[in-house]
Specification:
This protein is α+β, with helices and mostly antiparallel strands. The protein contains nine helices and eleven strands. The protein folds into two domains: 49 residues; 196 residues, no CATH class. Strands 1, 5, 6, 7, 8, 9 and 10 form a seven-stranded mixed beta sheet that branches. Helix 1 packs antiparallel against helix 2. The two termini are 34 Å apart.
């Protein structure tokens, strides 16, 4: 940010100088050279930070508001063109395996600097304690994103939720899944929106991981699919995009919106 302001300031100064310098003179050529030399790194800086422009817009537009942030990781688990969804623990819907990132005790100092408050939508209990669901001033949004992307003092592995939702309850066996391999697909920043439930603006952030099962693990997933486990739904892409609605029919099975993000 400081470097960008320096570049912009230097360009403005050079533009003012050009207004008082005769064209084709040595000073004119020197100033043009400085402008070119500044423009190249400035364009590089802008292109590498282009995605932050959206956050800067949110910061300016909602400067006086406190916004809700919920940051999670979600699994894409696919067998024969159908996606595994699990019954939600808090909401009556099927959703991807995964959950909200946890933060460590050392994050408190940084979150205090950001002016973070506990989420007032999901009650803090043994399950949600230390979840990365917070409310911060909109002016701190870019600082929050930079801190989150650093990975400092927060959970960085998707293993915990996989273990808690699938291994712990016995849906999958620890013998077959002593470890997992995953591909990081993308980091999805959902557009800022007004949440009727939270009665505030909110931004949902989700890291999408694709499970890369071994041959043994794929066989275990296929057995699970054939078992018809009541906590598990295997859904097609079309079912997910329709959130469980059957065209011309009723809502047979409720699928949560986050399932769409994993496609």
């Amino acid at each position: 940010m400081i470097r960008g302001l320096f570049y912009f300031g230097a360009l403005i100064i050079c533009a003012v100088i050009l207004a008082f310098v005769e064209p084709s003179t040595t000073p004119f050529v020197l100033v043009i050279g400085i402008i070119v030399g500044i423009t190249v790194p400035l364009l590089d800086l802008i292109s590498s930070n282009l995605r932050y422009l959206r956050f800067a817009y949110y910061t300016a537009r909602y400067a006086r508001e406190r916004i809700r942030l919920s940051v999670s990781y979600l699994f894409r688990i696919k067998v024969n063109n159908e996606y595994m969804l699990i019954k939600g623990r808090r909401w009556d819907q099927y959703q991807p395996v995964g959950g909200v990132y946890k933060v460590s005790a050392s994050s408190k100092h940084k979150l205090d600097i950001l002016g973070a408050l506990n989420d007032n939508l999901v009650p803090v209990d043994a399950v949600s304690e230390n979840d990365l669901r917070i409310r911060i001033p909109a002016s701190k949004l870019i600082s929050f994103v930079r801190w989150f992307e650093s990975g400092y003092s927060r959970e960085t592995s998707p293993w915990r939720e996989f273990q808690e939702e699938l291994i712990g309850p016995g849906i999958l066996s620890e013998v077959d899944f002593p470890f997992i391999f995953t591909d990081f697909i993308r980091r999805d920043f959902r557009p800022m929106r007004f949440s009727s439930h939270a009665q505030s603006r909110e931004m949902l952030i989700a890291d999408i991981y694709e499970l890369l099962p071994t041959a043994t693990q794929m066989e275990a997933l296929k057995r699970l699919k054939e078992s018809g486990h009541p906590e598990i739904l295997w859904a097609t892409e079309d079912q997910i995009r329709r959130l469980g609605v059957t065209p011309g029919g009723k809502l047979d099975t409720r699928i949560g919106e986050p399932a769409i993000w994993t496609l």
